[in-house]
Amino acid sequence: MTFMELCKFRQSNRKYKTQPVEREKIERCLEAARIAPSACNSQPWYFVVIDDPELRAKVARETFGVILNFNHFSMTAPVMVVVVTEPSNLTARVGSVIKNRPYNLIDIGIAAEHFCLQAAEEDLGTCMLGWFNEKPLTKMLNIPANKKIDLVITMGYPDDKPRDKTRKTIDEIRHYNVEK
User: Fold this and answer.
1) Exposed end of the chain (fewer CB within 10 Å): N or C?
2) Exposure class string for 62-97: b at 16+ Cβ within 10 A, else e
3) pTM score, two decimals?
4) Domains in the chain with CATH codes
C-alpha cells in the first residue's frame, strides 16, 4: 500500500469485531508513535495499553457522553490506548510559552496519528477520542499528578465498511504565497 492509499484507507472506526488484537501489532503501532518527531525532541508522550476486558470496559465507560449519547461504540473495541502527556523538556516548554503554542499537544497529535497509520497498515481500525472523563481515568490507571491524559484511542479489527470520505476540495484548503 502506498502512503496515499494508507491515508485514504485510514478512518475513524466505530465498530469492531470481537477478535483480539495481537500484541506484536500493538507493539509495531507503539514503535511508530515512539519514533514520531516532536518539538525539541521532547517526546512528551506515554501510552497505557488496555487489553484486559474488565479494565477496558471501565475505561470505555469513562468515554461515554451523558447528555450527548456518543462513544458507546468504545465498549466494542478490544483495545484502548490512553495517551498521556508527560512534561516537555525545558526547551520545548520555554518555546511554548514564548510562542503561545501548545507544542506538547501538537506532538501528541503527531505521535497518535503515527500510531493510527501503523494500525491501518496492520488492517486494524482506530478512533481517537477527545471526550472522556479525565479524573476517573487518571485515578483508575494511577497516572501521576504531573501528567495529563489528553487522548484515548480505540483499536481493533474493524467491523464497519470503509466510508467514502467527504472532504473539502484542494482549492478550499490551500493557496500559494500571499492570499489573494
Assistant:
1) C
2) bbbeeeeeebebbebbbbbbbbbbbebbeebbebbe
3) 0.92
4) 18-160 (3.40.109.10)
